[in-house]
């Protein structure tokens, strides 16, 4: 069974193409649950109008699915609560000039 840290490490490969930073650093991953060989990921986008949702879901399935003992990856996109720059890591804030 993978750890939350291993899942987050895998999710760090999911990059926002406009900002050039990963979803974890941007604070776009709201929750990760590991239930045996199933990983449930709750995430958001910087804006509901962002067109990359399907691409992001596919990348999450790909990268997290490569972890040992993972058989199912269930990404779930939500928009509540809305994302804000306050959710970003300090490194991401620095990189983007916040």
UniProtKB/TrEMBL annotation:
Domain called MIP18 family-like: residue spans: 5-73
One Pfam family named in its UniProt record: FeS_assembly_P
InterPro entries: Fe-S_Maturation_MIP18, FSCA_dom_sf, MIP18-like
SUPFAM superfamilies: Fe-S cluster assembly (FSCA) domain-like
Top-level taxon of origin: Bacteria
Protein name, UniProt field: MIP18 family-like domain-containing protein
């Amino acid at each position: 069974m993978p750890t939350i840290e291993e899942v987050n490490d895998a999710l760090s490969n999911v990059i926002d193409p406009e900002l050039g930073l990963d979803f974890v650093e941007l604070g776009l991953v709201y929750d990760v649950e590991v239930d045996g060989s199933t990983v449930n990921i709750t995430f958001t986008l910087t804006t509901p109008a962002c067109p990359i949702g399907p691409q992001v879901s596919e990348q999450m399935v790909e990268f997290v699915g490569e972890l040992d003992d993972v058989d199912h990856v269930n990404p779930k996109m939500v928009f509540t609560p809305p994302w804000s720059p306050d959710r970003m890591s300090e490194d991401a804030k620095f990189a983007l000039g916040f």
